[in-house]
Amino acid sequence: MSMFHDEFDQAPGLRYLNHAAIAPWPRRASEAVARFARENVNLGASDYPAWLATERRLRERLARLLNAPSRGDIALVKNTSEALSLAPRFTFSRAKRATASLALRGQGAMAAWFR
């Protein structure tokens, strides 16, 4: 249980179990967002190329994880609703075509479409 406590150091008596809406962020997510905000305040968009490189690496890792043909097959969207609104645009017109999605509940969503 200490693994969860380290990531979700919540007030005594406060627990979220399988919550698909608003919930406390893991410690490492909170730290990453705070780090990004500090960089943005201090440097503005001067690190934009580094942001794009981070996004590229994320897409590459997700493509490997999901066995997608390429990072171009990975769509990053702001939330589950946006991902679901995109889904009808992709159909199973051929037997070898498949769709997979992974929702990051409450904090955003991503979807991968395989062609």
Number of strands: 3
* H-E string: HHHEHEE
How many domains is the backbone divided into? 1
The major sheet is characterized as: 3 strands, antiparallel
Poorly predicted residue ranges: 92-115
The oligomeric state of the chains shown is: single chain
The percent range for helix content is: 40-55%
- Measured between the Cα atoms of the first and last residue, the distance is 40 Å
Task: For the largest sheet, list the strands in their spatial order.
Answer: 1-3-2
Which structural category fits the helices and strands?
alpha+beta
Strand fraction? 15-25%
- Assign an overall shape: extended
Q: Which whole number gives the mean pLDDT? A: 75
What integer value in Å does the Rg equal?
Answer: 17 Å
Number of helices: 4
Write a structural description.
The protein is an alpha+beta fold and 115 residues long. It has one domain (2-114). Helices cover 43% and strands 16% of the residues. Strand 2 and strand 3 (108-114) form a beta hairpin.
Summarize the SSE layout with pairings.
Blueprint: H1 2-7, H2 27-43, H3 48-66, E1 74-77, H4 80-86, E2 98-104, E3 108-114
Antiparallel strand pairs: 1-3, 2-3
Short description:
This protein is of the alpha+beta class. The protein has helices at residues 2-7, 27-43, 48-66, 80-86, and strands at residues 74-77, 98-104, 108-114.
Entry keywords:
alpha+beta, 3-stranded antiparallel β-sheet, 16% strand, disordered C terminus
